Amino acid sequence: MDARATIHDYYDSLRHGAPLDTFFADDRPDDDAIVKCGVSERLVGSDTVQEGLRDQTASTSDWTVDSRDLRVTQRDAVAWFSDDVGLAWTETDERYEFDTRWSGTLEHRSGDWSFVGMHVSVAAEL
């Protein structure tokens, strides 16, 4: 599987409420190199990112992930991407919808591609 396929699998897992924590690199618990910034949080460190994703999966449902402009560059053991994504989900009976921008970095480790950084921000004109 290449980096692009991994990103598509992540989007599909998000849509279907499947676990997401396994998509991120699993480093030492004290390692702060793995970072995931979402619409409303910043998670630093493998354990924190994976716990945050498990909590997200448990507390949200009915995800819409509409990829509009995925761009992926892959070089040997590293890849980076950007995308414009229509994103929506339900949490505690409230529906959230945003136009978002995604970017991130993946690393090829032990035969698989894993996210080592991801940033999701709300796209808004000033």
Automatic annotation (TrEMBL):
It comes from the Archaea. Pfam families: SnoaL_3 (PF13474). SUPFAM superfamilies: NTF2-like. Coiled coil: none annotated. Residues 4-124 form the SnoaL-like domain. This is Nuclear transport factor 2 family protein. The lineage of its organism: Archaea, Methanobacteriati, Methanobacteriota, Stenosarchaea group, Halobacteria.
